[in-house]
């Protein structure tokens, strides 16, 4: 494979074509889409050359003209950017959820602390036994490996 040639896996080709991977495999089996074999992470895998994928994309668009490589590359880049934007949106939503949870936890901590006295102890006084039991538990936790 030369450096200028770009190859796509079946999964990547399916995303670019907007079809399920089974459809891409059917096109390969029916010889409508040419493939090459290469050694991948899990052994021999089928890859689709960029030129073959370009022809397949053009066959899906009625009355389209043959794209040059630069135009095809622009289309592919835009599709990958769109896919990445979807991932970014999911990450953004997850971060917003975490921020909301953080605000709720902070409010709960403030509410808990508002019930504490000036020395940081809870409003009701702890008995001596409770305090010593807690210290023993803390020591036991600290001594664990």
Task: Give a written overview of the molecule.
With 145 residues, the chain is mostly helical. The protein has a domain at 7-90: Multidrug-efflux Transporter Regulator, Chain: A, Domain 2 (Orthogonal Bundle), CATH 1.10.1660. The protein has five helices and three strands. Helix 1 packs across helix 2.
CATH third-tier fold name of the domain at 7-90? Multidrug-efflux Transporter Regulator, Chain: A, Domain 2
Structural class: mainly alpha
Quickly count the helices. 5
How many strand segments? 3
- In what range is the share of β-strand residues? 5-15%
Low-confidence stretches: none
Q: Which CATH architecture of the domain at 7-90 would you pick? A: Orthogonal Bundle
Taken in chain order, the helices and strands follow as EHHEEHHH
Give the structure's gist in a few sentences.
With 145 residues, the protein is mainly alpha-helical. It has a domain at 7-90: Multidrug-efflux Transporter Regulator, Chain: A, Domain 2, CATH 1.10.1660.
Key structural traits:
three-stranded antiparallel sheet, elongated, mainly alpha, 145 residues, 62% helix, Multidrug-efflux Transporter Regulator, Chain: A, Domain 2
Task: Summarize the helices and strands and which ones pair or pack.
Blueprint: E1 7-8, H1 10-17, H2 21-29, E2 36-40, E3 43-49, H3 50-60, H4 69-114, H5 128-143
Antiparallel strand pairs: 1-3, 2-3
Helix pairs in contact: 1-2
């Amino acid at each position: 494979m030369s450096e200028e040639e770009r190859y796509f896996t079946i999964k990547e080709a399916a995303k670019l074509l907007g079809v399920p991977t089974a459809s891409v495999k059917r096109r390969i089996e029916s010889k409508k889409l040419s493939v090459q074999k290469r050694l991948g992470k899990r052994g021999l895998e089928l890859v689709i050359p960029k030129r073959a994928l370009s022809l397949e994309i053009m066959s899906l668009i009625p009355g389209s003209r043959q794209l040059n490589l630069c135009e095809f590359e622009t289309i592919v880049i835009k599709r990958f950017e769109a896919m990445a934007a979807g991932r970014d949106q999911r990450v953004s939503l997850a971060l917003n959820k975490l921020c909301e949870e953080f605000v709720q936890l902070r409010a709960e901590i403030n509410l808990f602390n508002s019930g504490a006295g000036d020395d940081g102890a809870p409003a009701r006084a702890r008995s001596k036994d409770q305090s010593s039991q807690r210290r023993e538990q803390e020591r036991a936790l600290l001594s664990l490996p």
